[in-house]
Every structure is written in structure tokens, then in C-alpha cells.
Design goal:
The complex is a heterodimer. Chain A is of the alpha+beta class. Chain A is built from eight helices and nine strands. The longest helix of chain B has about 30 residues, at about 90-120. The chains are: A alpha+beta, B mainly alpha. The interface between A and B is medium-sized, with 29 and 32 residues.
Chain lengths: ~350, ~220
């Protein structure tokens, strides 16, 4: 049992991330606001739709602001909850704005005790003129955004397009981490084969490659399903989709290469050489090329990367263990594969 | 182990063999002429974007054939003879340099044929030339290495395509970007990114080839 602790660890971690990742709720968020634009000096009634919110709790009517920047914000003149998810907030938009004339985006801030604070950036666009009146400008300072509630429960951030699919972070991304690590492991054994010429090293290397290819395929599939729900199409010729498909092609070619040689020693030597060569070419492909063009993925083309707003500390608590768990599972798969090859060898010879 | 005189001698031997067995080079030139002719029948005058694409596709197939031919035409016994004479790295470099020259000639002939038949969209010839030179060098590196693996199998041409094509995609992404700049297809005219990546890919390939080729060659 002592030798198998890491397998138990892998299963426990994956079970934990499945439970934690699937069962934790999303934090309350703001789904939509209507109307999205108005003119300065008007009264508007915003119809706000929340997600996972509890607007209608009797003792806990939300406070609502339209925020311009850290110093300037408007409080709602009247707030009325229609049900748990629908809220009406009335605002008077002052004639005068602190900045120059033009169109300014205001963020919507909602706060109540149970849900904590939710923010929708650029919720309402206001067109305003040059007029500067002291009395109107003072309205911006009257209701500062203060005494906000903090969230006391475990959850994941609400993102407008992602919504519940944000949980796929714990499955899609660990696949790619696992794939790279498994391929790196196989390169190590290929290198060792070149040193020792020991057939076991070749089998270890190819077992790891096969497990890595499995992870790559799963990463592609989970990514395609995710893309269907967020970008609208399974395949949108995004640069990262392309390079990962090419990576898989390269490794499929390795598997074809192995099947076209009968002689074991020659097969082992050539596949070790190609494996290292492929890994060397894969590094610029996966780590450099995607950074040069725009991508729909986070981290490219102006989207925030991991560690931006899409990944907060509660998510990290699941995400990092998930990487470890899935990689350990991949090693386990590779090990079973290796033992299968060994058993087959012994039966045929 | 690295000996320039041996590399030079090996390159001279390659050129001699090439001229004695003219069918290999002749076959490739015929391929270039035929494929350009087919393109002309299909398209007539080519738009710059299509020109770019057609050029690189024809170049890819011509180069994969050319490099493989330079390996297949000599028997395995003769390679054993070379192995006793010189270090494999010298053999690799001589092949790579010779193939780079061959691919550069093919690339220039191909572009000349396309310009002659389908119009000349090239706006900055120097960048296009740079793309052809860098493309020849990196494809020659990749294909020389791959064909040293592929010739060990019976179905070497198929295996060459399966192993080589996916590996050339990162190279082609940058080559097509580079020649798009040369053809005036893109707004941004900076080529530093592409040249840096191609250069680093080439360095990686040289490094990997130097380490792996001697080992693969032993069989």
C-alpha cells in the first residue's frame, strides 16, 4: 500500500475537485441591465436581472449605485425588488459630469448582506454635454459606495459569458498541463533509451506518449464543448485550437511511425529520435506562436489570463490540486499501459 | 568531430551525384513546370493571397520530394561506407547545406515560373527572398532529419509525409506571414517577430539534429 499512496492521492484529489468544482455555487452576479444607455439630466428606471441573487429578502433590500470612478458614484433614489432575481432601481443622472463632454460608461454596483457585492462594468452608457453646475456635480459625492458586505461562503466568480461553464476550468486546463508533463516525461525516457538502449525505457516512453495523447484529445474535446457554449461554435479556428490539433497530429505521426517498423530495436531507436525532435518543435508551437496572434482564449488579444479576473483565490484552491490530480492519474494510466506492454512482450516471446 | 573540409567534400560529392543521375533534378523541375501549368489552367491570373498560398503549397511538395530523393538515391551499403569515413554530424550538415541550396534553387525557379505565368504580386523582393532562404533552410533541416528516419521504412514516401507535414506547420505559419508582408497583404510591415521565431526554430532544429542524428544513423 505504501508504494501506491500517489494513486490514492490522485483519486482523492480528482474526487475532491469533482465535488468542489461541481457543487460549489457561483457567486451572485448581474446578468443584464436595461436600458443600457441614456442622456444626462434624465430620470431612468433600470431593470436589473441577477444571477443566484436574493433581492427579495424582506430585511435585506439591496443598495444600488452607478459608479463613475473611485470618487464619483450615484445612489439609487428608489429600489424595488420584484422577485429574487429581478430588481428595479431608479436614478437621476445629473446634468453635469466631472470629466469632458462625450459618452461615459457607468458601472453598476449592487450590495446586500446575503449576496455581497456584485459589479457589472460598463453597465450604462450616458451621453452628456459640457455644462458644469456645482449643485449637479455635488450629486456625484452624495452617496459614496461604502460599507460593502463581504461574501462569507465558498463560490466561484460570476462571468457574463461563462456563467456555470467556468467550472470547466478544472477539467480543460489540467488536461493540457498533464499532456505537456507526460510528453516531457516521455522525452526523458527517450533520452534514457538513447543512453542505455534498454527496451524497457522505450516502452516507458511510448506509454507516456500514449497517455499524453489521450490527455490531449480530452483537452481538445472539453475545449470544443466549452467553445460551443461560450463562443457559439465547436471549432472557430482559434490559434490555440489549431496549434493543439497540430500537436496531436505530430504525436499521431509518432504512433504511425512505430507501427511501420517490425524490428523492435530499430523501431525503438527511431521513435526515440522522433519523439525528442517532436517535443523540441512543439515548444515554439505551443508556447510562442499563440502569443503572437489574437485568440479567443483568455490571455490573448486583450483578454485577461489566468490570475486576472477570471481566476480568483477560491478557484485556485480547486484548480491547482486538479492539475496535480489529473497529472498523477495520467502517470498511473501510463504505468498500466507500460505493464500491459510488458505482459504482452512476455506472452509473445 | 566537426570538419569543414569533410563537409565540403561531401557537398561536392552530392553535387556530382546529382549531375550524374540527372533524373532526380529533372523530375523536380518537371514537377515545378507541370504544377505551375495546372495552376495557370485552373486560375489564370492569381490574386496576391492565392499566389502566396499556391507558391508555398507547391514549394512544400517540391521540397519534400527533393530532400527524400537525395537520401533514397544512394544505397544503404554506401551509407555504411560514409559512416566509417566521417562523423554523422558532418554527413548531416553536408546534406542540410546541399538541400538548402537545392531548395533555394527550386524556390527561385518556382517563383519565377509563377511570376512569368500568373502575374507578379511581389512588392518587396528582398523580404520575399528572405522568406525563400529561411524557408529553404528550415525545411531542409526538418526534412533531412525526417528522411533519415523515413528511409529506414519500406513505405518511405508516405511515412515522410506523415512525419514531416505536421512538423512543418509552425514553420509555414511564419513563412506565410513573412511572404504576406512581402506581397503587401498585411497592414503591419514589421517582420522581426517572424524572423526571430524562424531563427529560433532553426537553432532548435540544428541543436536537436546534431544530438539525435548520430544516434539515428547508427542502424
Amino acid at each position: 500500500m505504501r508504494r501506491h499512496w500517489w494513486k490514492i492521492l490522485a483519486v482523492l484529489i480528482i474526487l475532491g475537485t469533482l465535488l468542489g468544482g461541481m457543487l460549489s455555487p457561483l457567486y451572485p452576479g448581474i446578468e443584464s441591465v436595461k436600458p443600457g444607455r441614456t442622456d444626462a439630466g434624465e430620470m431612468i428606471v433600470l431593470q436589473i436581472r441577477g444571477y443566484n441573487t436574493h433581492f427579495d429578502a424582506s430585511d435585506d433590500l439591496p443598495r444600488v449605485w452607478l459608479k463613475l470612478d473611485e470618487e464619483n458614484a450615484l445612489g439609487a433614489t428608489q429600489v424595488m425588488a420584484r422577485n429574487a432575481r429581478e430588481l428595479r432601481a431608479s436614478f437621476y443622472i445629473p446634468k453635469s459630469f466631472p470629466g469632458d463632454q462625450g459618452v461615459t460608461a457607468l458601472s453598476l454596483v449592487i450590495d446586500n448582506a446575503r449576496d455581497g457585492t456584485s459589479v457589472l462594468p460598463s453597465a450604462v452608457f450616458v451621453r452628456h454635454g459640457q455644462e458644469k453646475s456645482e449643485a449637479e456635480l455635488l450629486l456625484w459625492k452624495k452617496d459614496p459606495v461604502v460599507h460593502l458586505n463581504t461574501r462569507a461562503f465558498f463560490g466561484f466568480p460570476y462571468r457574463n459569458i461563462l456563467v456555470e461553464t467556468i467550472r470547466n476550468t478544472y477539467f480543460h486546463i489540467p488536461m493540457w498541463f498533464g499532456m505537456i508533463l507526460l510528453f516531457a516525461g516521455s522525452v526523458y525516457f527517450s533520452y534514457r533509451y538513447m543512453k542505455t538502449q534498454h527496451p524497457d525505457d522505450d516502452l516507458r516512453s511510448i506509454s507516456l506518449v500514449q497517455a499524453g495523447v489521450l490527455f490531449g484529445v480530452m483537452g481538445l474535446v472539453t475545449g470544443m464543448i466549452w467553445a460551443k457554449y461560450t463562443w457559439g461554435k465547436f471549432w472557430s479556428w482559434d490559434i490555440k485550437q489549431n496549434v493543439s490539433a497540430i500537436t496531436l497530429l505530430i504525436y499521431f505521426a509518432l504512433l504511425v511511425l512505430r507501427s511501420s517498423f517490425e524490428d523492435e530495436q530499430r523501431r525503438a531507436r527511431l521513435s526515440a529520435g522522433y519523439n525528442i525532435f517532436a517535443f523540441v518543435l512543439m515548444i515554439p508551437l505551443i508556447f510562442v506562436v499563440p502569443r503572437l496572434t489574437d485568440s479567443l482564449h483568455p490571455g490573448n488579444g486583450g483578454n485577461p489570463a489566468l490570475g486576472g479576473e477570471d481566476m480568483d483565490n477560491t478557484m485556485r484552491m480547486i484548480f491547482y490540486p486538479a492539475i496535480i490530480g489529473w497529472t498523477l492519474l495520467g502517470v498511473w494510466i501510463a504505468q498500466l499501459n507500460y505493464r500491459f506492454f510488458k505482459a504482452k512482450d512476455r506472452l509473445t516471446n | 568531430m566537426l570538419s569543414f573540409s569533410e563537409i565540403a567534400a561531401l557537398i561536392r560529392k552530392e553535387i556530382l551525384v546529382e549531375f550524374r543521375e540527372k533524373y532526380a533534378l529533372g523530375g523536380i523541375l518537371l514537377y515545378v513546370a507541370t504544377s505551375v501549368f495546372i495552376v495557370m489552367i485552373a486560375f489564370g491570373e492569381l490574386a496576391p493571397a492565392t499566389w502566396n498560398l499556391i507558391f508555398w503549397i507547391l514549394f512544400l511538395f517540391a521540397s519534400i520530394n527533393a530532400v527524400l530523393k537525395s537520401f533514397v538515391r544512394e544505397s544503404e551499403k554506401r551509407y555504411l561506407f560514409y559512416y566509417t569515413l566521417t562523423h554523422p554530424v558532418n554527413l548531416l550538415f553536408s546534406k542540410v547545406i546541399y538541400n538548402t541550396g537545392l531548395l533555394m534553387i527550386i524556390g527561385l525557379l518556382l517563383s519565377a515560373a509563377l511570376v512569368f505565368i500568373a502575374g507578379n504580386p511581389i512588392e518587396s523582393a528582398d523580404i520575399f527572398l528572405l522568406a525563400v532562404v529561411m524557408g529553404s533552410f528550415s525545411l531542409s533541416l526538418t526534412f533531412t532529419f525526417i528522411s533519415s528516419i523515413a528511409i529506414k521504412a519500406d513505405n518511405s514516401a508516405t511515412l515522410m509525409a506523415i512525419l514531416g507535414f505536421p512538423l512543418t506547420i509552425p514553420i509555414f505559419i511564419n513563412l506565410i506571414d513573412l511572404s504576406s508582408v512581402a506581397l503587401g497583404l498585411t497592414m503591419d510591415s514589421s517582420i522581426t517577430d517572424e524572423v526571430t521565431i524562424l531563427g529560433s526554430i532553426e537553432l532548435l532544429l540544428i541543436g536537436a539534429g546534431m544530438i539525435l542524428f548520430p544516434f539515428l544513423w547508427r542502424s
